[in-house]
Each structure stands twice: as C-alpha cells, then as structure tokens.
Design a protein that fits this description.
The chain has about 120 residues and is mainly beta. The mean pLDDT is about 95. The strands form two sheets. Strands 2, 4, 5, 6, 9, 10 and 11 form a seven-stranded mixed beta sheet that branches. Strands 1-3-8-7 form a four-stranded antiparallel beta sheet, with no helix packed on it. It is about 0% helix and about 50% strand. The protein is built from no helices and eleven strands. It is globular, with a radius of gyration of 13 Å.
Length: about 120
C-alpha cells in the first residue's frame, strides 16, 4: 500500500505559477510510474502528466504541454508538478496517483493508488 499526500495548491491569478508536491509513504514508490490527474467542477477526471519510475520519460496532456513539468525525486519519495502560465481553465482538484497496471500512461484505470487531491484555482 502506498499513501499519497498532495500539497501546494492555492488561489492564483492567470499567468502565475504553482508547484504541486506529492509525498509518498508506506511501500516504496520508486518502482511505480506516477501521474497527475485533475478534475474540474462538473467534469470528469482527466490525465495531466505522467513520469516513468526512473524519471526518464514524461507524458503530458496537450492542454498543458509546454506549460507544466512533471518530475520526481525517488530519494525523497516525492513527485512534483511545476505549473507555469496558469489559465482559468486549469482550475481543478489535482490528484497524484501511482500507476500500478501496465499499459497506457494516460488511462486513469491504470492508476491504483490515489491521493486526496489539492485544489488549484486560477482567477482571470
């Protein structure tokens, strides 16, 4: 079992930056690829970004490519999401998750451990 706790969310203005953190505890998380998923009000959860266990390969949703950067520090059991040039449409609860099944990094069904989420609100 892996416990995930997100932090770093908040209220910012359009164009600002935020860095989200996700701290893992319990079972070591280094063998897992990790992802960030978000859910906007009234919408379904959507894939944002993912990173392989080594950190060597990253994946991004088209909507955040070039603005968001996912990274991880396995020694600190932490994964990060640097979010730049934030837009009002980035407003959502952001979840980190550990990928426990093989296959598509963008498929939410492949993520077995989830945090409770952190709210990001971007005002215009």
């Amino acid at each position: 079992q892996v416990q995930l706790v997100e932090s770093g969310g908040g209220l910012v203005q359009a164009g600002d930056s935020l860095r989200l953190s996700c701290a893992a505890s319990g079972r070591t998380f280094s063998p897992y690829a990790m992802g960030w998923i978000r859910q906007a009000p009234g919408k379904e959860r959507e894939f944002v970004a993912a990173i392989t266990w080594s950190g060597g390969i990253t994946y991004y949703a088209d909507s955040v490519k070039g603005r968001f950067t996912i990274s991880r520090d396995n020694a600190e059991n932490t994964v990060y999401l640097q979010m730049n040039s934030l837009k009002p449409e980035d407003t959502a609860v952001y979840y980190c998750a550990a990928k426990t099944a093989a296959g598509n990094f963008r498929a939410l069904s492949n993520y077995g451990y989830w945090g409770q989420g952190t709210q990001v609100t971007v005002s215009s």
